[in-house]
Structure to design on (374 residues):
């Protein structure tokens, strides 16, 4: 390729400081180093976690930074030693990588790869340098994905090669929101047929939990949100009941207990609020509660430990429990076979120049997923 080995100048949405809108700038993207891949991003969804970055919720994320972690694109060039992808391959960047060698990757029950950026103290590449500059300043990476850039660089083990037939403007959702929610139900909770589930929060993640519960054969799926505009989509995707906590004066777990008699079998927190986490845990005597939403760094939750002693289980789920490099390509294949339909989550498609409009729609509760196109 003509650009291989050279610095590429392209557009990217840069967050210069917390609390400020993104700024679409011309940035320079350095070539990939050894074991790295440079990808031309075609489409990127906007996830609430990106909004948390803009809001400064993660103190360890340094600014300026290029957010975005729900993208899909085409390999532009590869660094020395890269063997699993080549220029022209369609790929999904992995915000949770799979190195294949660490103790978690070797453990069949875990997907929390220890060689991920989660173990890094700074949002740079693994060698502690950045491939991005803008106006002479170093720009930080985010989750090694930074999919709000037209070209981005990531470690080889943070890239999944997908089917060449995949429509990138749709399968980008398989980079975060859809597998996170769907996998929380299928992999982490292992929802049983005939069970009753409660899903707190009906954004892209929570609605994907609803889809997962339905696919697992749950007979009752209670969808909970303070924005009633989310209910029509939740029903379309499989929710049997929709509940707005604002319609009740009593606590929501009491409402759920009354609705179900015995309470729910599984509950999922897909909001990212510590209050709903505890409420979620109270949803039933024998409930398995799965934490899907991401809380602000440093959040502290207090709860009565007797809740656990009585037999409840409280589990966390990161990226739906999928071992990403193995599973995301399979999810793309299932999508192409029409076994999954994350397209139903896409409410808006916007050019990258309108990235801030995408965030305004999310904050106003008017979108589920906006997909940005380059
Ligand atoms: N009770 C019920 N629903 C609530 C409450 C509440 N107290 N507060 C907010 N919600 C609803 C919102 O109305 C919205 O529909 O939760 C939903 C959250 O959806 P999004 O903001 O679209 O977020 P999403 O992208 O789905 O991510 C959910 O998972 O990955 C994490 O960081 C992400 O914590 C976030 C969570
Ligand atoms: Zn996300
Ligand atoms: Zn690993």
């Amino acid at each position: 390729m003509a650009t291989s080995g050279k610095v590429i100048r392209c557009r990217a949405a840069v967050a210069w400081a917390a609390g400020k809108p993104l700024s679409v700038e011309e940035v320079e993207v350095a070539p990939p180093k050894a074991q790295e891949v440079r990808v031309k991003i075609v489409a990127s969804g906007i996830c609430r976690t990106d909004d948390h970055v803009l809001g400064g919720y993660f103190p360890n994320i340094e600014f300026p930074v290029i957010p975005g972690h729900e993208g899909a694109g085409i390999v532009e060039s590869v660094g020395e030693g890269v063997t699993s992808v080549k220029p022209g391959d369609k790929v999904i960047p992995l915000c949770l990588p799979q190195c294949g060698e660490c103790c978690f990757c070797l453990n069949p029950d875990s997907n929390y790869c220890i060689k991920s950026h989660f173990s890094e103290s700074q949002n740079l590449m693994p060698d502690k340098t950045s491939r991005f500059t803008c106006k002479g300043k170093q720009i930080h990476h985010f989750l090694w994905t930074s999919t709000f850039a037209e070209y981005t660089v990531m470690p080889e083990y943070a890239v999944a090669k997908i089917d060449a037939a995949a429509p990138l403007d749709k399968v980008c959702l398989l980079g975060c929101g859809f597998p996170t929610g769907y996998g929380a139900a299928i992999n982490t909770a292992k929802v049983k047929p005939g069970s009753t589930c409660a899903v707190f929060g009906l954004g892209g993640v929570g609605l994907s939990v609803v889809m997962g519960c339905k696919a697992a054969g749950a007979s009752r799926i209670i969808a909970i949100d303070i924005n009633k505009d989310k209910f029509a989509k939740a029903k379309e995707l499989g929710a049997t009941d929709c509940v707005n906590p604002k319609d009740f004066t009593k606590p929501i777990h009491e409402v759920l207990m009354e609705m179900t008699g015995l309470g729910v079998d599984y509950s999922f927190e897909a909001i990212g609020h510590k209050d709903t986490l505890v409420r979620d845990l109270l949803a039933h005597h024998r409930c398995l509660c799965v934490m899907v939403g991401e809380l602000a760094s440093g959040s502290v939750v207090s709860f009565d430990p007797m809740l656990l002693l009585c037999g409840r289980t409280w589990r966390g789920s990161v990226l739906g429990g999928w071992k990403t490099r193995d599973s995301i390509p399979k999810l793309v294949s299932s999508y192409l076979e029409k076994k999954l339909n994350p397209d139903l989550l896409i409410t808006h498609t916007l050019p990258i120049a309108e990235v801030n409009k995408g965030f305004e729609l999310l904050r106003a509760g008017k979108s589920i997923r906006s997909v940005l196109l380059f």
Q: What stands out?
A: Residues 177-189 form the longest helix (13 residues). The pocket of zinc ion (ligand 3) is lined by residues 98-99, 101-102, 104-105, 113-115 (CB under 6 Å). Residues 190 and 368 are 25 Å apart (CA to CA).
